[in-house]
Every structure is written in C-alpha cells, then in structure tokens.
C-alpha cells in the first residue's frame, strides 16, 4: 500500500519533470518505454485473462453454468471458502499480534520473528506442504497418535486449512509492521497515560490508525488463500468432492481434457482476482485520502 | 501533590542515562528540568510518568511509592513534544478521551463530559476549534489542545516533555508566558523538560540543571544564573568566556598574562583553575601601556542592538580562543574600536572553579 501512496507522489514529480525542457527526456525514450511496458502487459497479463473467459464461454452459457453447478465443482467452491474463512481470521489475529509485538515491544528474538514471518514467501509452497505431510502424515511424527485417536489431517480438510494458513501468514503482518513502525507509539502512550486499558487503547487509538493497512492485508491474504495451489496440492490427496479446492479442481478438469469446464471454473478464480483488485484499489484510494487529511 | 525521586538509575546498554538521581519536587511548583540533549532529562520525566522504568530507585508520588504502579493508575498528565494528539479524532473527542475511557462506575454522564470539555477548551482559549481535526490546527494550537486533554482527567501532576520544542520562536515565546499564567491559575505541580535555558529561566519557579545523567544544580532561576555551582552550569546558562590558568596571589596567571582578580578562599597558590566571565563582565582596554588582562584582536564589531557585541580572537597565551564582549554603544564610540585592532581584555567579574 505504501507503493500506492508513493505512486501519487511520483505523479507530481513526473509532471514537474515533463514540464521543463531542462529535465525532459527525448520523445523516443518516453514512447519506447511506454510501448515496451504496454506490450508486455497485453501479452502476458491481459490476453491470458481474456482467454480464460473466452474459453470458458466457448460452448455457451449453458455449458458454462453446468460446469459450475456440477456437485464436484460446488464442493470445491465450498472447500475453498471454508479454507479462506478459517485461515484469514486466524492470520488476521496472528498478523496483528505479531506486528504489535514487533513494533511496540523490545524483546529477545525480535529479529528471528521478523525473519520467520517472511519464511512462507521464501520457501517453495511444495516444501510447505511436504512439511505438514512429514509431521502429520501416516508415516509422520504424529501419524500413529493421530490414527489411534481417529483424527485425519493430511488428505483432509484440516491439512488444507493448515497449508493455506502457512502460505498466507506474511500478508497481514508484513503490511502492518512498516505502517505501525512509522506511526510510533506516542499516541498509544498518550492513551495509556489518560487511563485507557490495553483493549481500549487498541480499539480507539491503534485500530483506527491502521485500519486501511489492515484491510489491505486481509484482501491480499484472502486472494492468496483462495488461489493457493502448491502447498494445498501436496496435502489434499485430490479426492473429488471431498478435498479438492478450486485451483485443484481446475487442474483435474484440465488433465481430463475437459477444457471448457476447466476454464469455466478458472474464470471464477479470475473473477475473484478482479474483485480483489477493485477492492484493493478502493482501499488504496481511501488510505491515501486519510493520509492527506492528517 | 509532591513528587520525589530517590536514587534513580537507568542505563541503555553501556550508556548511563541517569546515575543515582534524587530530587524533590514540592507541591504546586513549576519546575524545569534543563540540560543539553542526551542529559537524561526526558528519561527522568518518563520514569516519573511510568512510561519508562528505572533500573533501580524509587518514585514517590504524594509520599507513596509509585514505582510499581501502572501508568494509568498514576493519574499524571503528560504532554508530548510532538503533541501525540489522536489524529482520527476531533479536538473535542481528543479532550474527552480520558473521561470516556474511565470504568463505567467512575465515568461521568455524557452531558457532564460535554460541559467539562468545553470548560477546558475555554481555559486554553480554543473553544471555537472543538469540531476540527488535529491536522487542521497550527502547532501552537495542537499543543494547547494536548494540554487540555491532559488536564481533563484532573491529573495530580503535570509532566511536559519539551512542550514547545517543535514550535517556531515567536509562538514558543507566547506559549511560555501562557503556560506560566495557566500554572498560576491552577497551581498543579508541574515538571517541564527543556534544553532552552531562556525558557527554563523565564517560566519555572525552580530550575534543575542536568548533565550526563547527573543533577548539576537546583535553584531558583535567579540563583542558578547568578551563582552557577559548576563550570557546566555557568557555560550552559548564557554565553561565557572561559579562561584556563592557575592561581598566582590575587590574580589569575594565563601564560605570560595576568588577570588581577580577588580569588576566593579555598584556592592555593598554583592551583589549576578555569574561570568564566559573561560577555557583559568583560571590558576592553585600548591603552598600549596596559599590562594586565589578556591580549586579543578585534575581528568584528556588531552594534545593531541596544548594546554592541564585539568578537575577538585571543593572542599570545590565549591564541585560538574566541571572546565575546558586550559593551554599551557609548562605550564603543568612546573607545573608537575598529576591526583588526589589538586590545586587552579585563574581566570586572570572574567565577573561578577548580579544574
């Protein structure tokens, strides 16, 4: 989000640079840069996006709808929603507490925590999935104990939720830490001196100050939770109608040469992405406005 | 309410911010903690508030040990250098915050809160800004709102951390006078931290001078200015001209030169000392036959004020040192001083400290 507010600032700088002959670049530089980025954008981002919808609707609305309301597809949609509904709030509370701990307290191991939060970004999602198989799988550390108590984690919904959580951990914390660092802790101190307790301070002072950053993190976290493929693929076991999420369902359909159905389901994911982008832009706009006000 | 701090020690790693500081702040006084940045004055203030904890020592509020009392139970008002107003709340909500956060049983009715907030806004003369947001206020207005907010919970003491530090010179001067008047009206025990000696001397009943985590001197503004107890205090309160030398009878010997001056008891012949004279305590002698005083060359004569300021570079024994002398304009005219002229400097008053 910092990037979005920065973009507004660069807008002004660009106008100043362009306006003066002394700092203006030759026209061919400007236009070739614009052409390059537009070509890349069209070829690699816009065309695939259009292709998804074109392919999905190739055999008409009826086929499109049938592919979506087919029981396996519906179950995939449900599972994707369940995973997101559990993972996002948990990561929300973890992200806020981690950001709070890192920015407002001094403690040993602070750097370790900051580094660990980035781990899911740096490790391949497949590895993340495998970790859970190693720990909770039938041959894993807790496998025998789990079997004794008739608990299933791997190749079941809990495993999918765990894997989703793992890959989406950084989004909210990473968004909040720089924001809260920049704000410092003076306002919180002022609140405490005035007699507010911890919850009141958070509710009335901290939260209003971070709300846009928080919402932004939640939106990104949600987008990733619904779209995650790698880690979930390892722990899911691909049981149709039971442990398939939307991305996995797309892959299965594609591998079975049901291209239209595959693209129809994929278009749902693409739509989700577009909605996410719209909300994200709106949040950035709001955040920039509230920043200008203060 | 009185405040006492006893044997407070605080370090950050190897750095000693406060070394065994004990102080007594009597009820109803306005005390300034004065010192250069990094002297520990803000740390001490934050320890009294409870925002920072001391490594050892005690803080007594009203005679009771408050060292383990949580900040919110200490009932202190704290004003931050950068105001720390809640930026998403209106001025009114900022001032009402402390009252609204009280536990339900103690919380006044919203009507009473409303009345009280308006009274406070009137007190700081900003009643007309109640619906504005902090970002729409000037620095001086923000700090006055911050003060009203701190006063809303009827604190037992008021602690101000460089309250005017972020304001421009003119507003600072205005607010200084205003704070003094407000204190005379409310008589609440107050401590304010500042690095501006003029501000401390002008506003406070008493001044505590601090350096390197230690208290150097405590006294009324008049006392500390007229009778500085240490070389640091002398140098910190206003401009000074230092002289490094040793005692020789009833004079100070600096290299080949001599400053005749009665030396107080307690100094023996040959003692190494440092002596200070303020700019207005130095006189310029143009008589070439004169042998007392230190030689210096005039580098600049600045005579745009009520008094004239003469800047000089030391010669012979005091080479490399700069001096500043304040004379009346008549005296400057009588002496016919010009830049580049070699003269002798003689103090009418010297404060001598052992070195």
What does this structure look like?
The complex is a heterodimer of chains A (294) and B (355). Chain A is an all-alpha fold and 294 residues long. Helices cover 82% and strands 0% of the residues of chain A. With 355 residues, chain B is an alpha+beta fold. In chain B, a hairpin with a 2-residue loop joins strand 4 and strand 5 (64-65). The mean pLDDT of chain B is 89. The interface between A and B is medium-sized, with 19 and 27 residues.
Q: Quick gist of this model?
A:
Chain A has helices at about 1-20, 25-55, 60-70, 70-105, 110-120, 125-135, 145-150, 155-185, 185-195, 200-225, 230-235, 245-255, 260-294. Chain A has about 290 residues and is mostly helical.
List keywords for this structure.
heterodimer; A: 294 residues; mainly alpha; 13 helices; 82% helix; 0% strand; B: 355 residues; alpha+beta; six-stranded mixed beta sheet; five-stranded antiparallel beta sheet; elongated
Question: Can you lay out the helices and strands and say which pair or pack?
Answer:
The complex is a heterodimer of chains A (294) and B (355).
Chain A: H1 2-19, H2 27-56, H3 60-69, H4 71-104, H5 110-122, H6 125-136, H7 143-148, H8 157-183, H9 186-193, H10 198-227, H11 230-236, H12 246-255, H13 259-293
Helix pairs in contact in A: 2-13, 3-13, 4-8, 4-10, 5-8, 6-8, 6-11, 8-10, 8-11, 9-10, 10-13, 12-13
Chain B: E1 3-12, E2 15-25, E3 30-34, H1 41-49, E4 56-61, E5 64-65, E6 76-79, H2 91-100, H3 110-123, H4 139-152, E7 157-161, H5 169-186, E8 189-194, H6 197-203, E9 206-211, E10 214-219, H7 221-226, H8 231-236, E11 241-248, E12 251-254, E13 257-260, E14 272-277, E15 282-285, E16 294-302, E17 307-314, E18 322-328, H9 329-335, E19 342-347, E20 351-354
Helix pairs in contact in B: 2-3, 2-4, 3-4
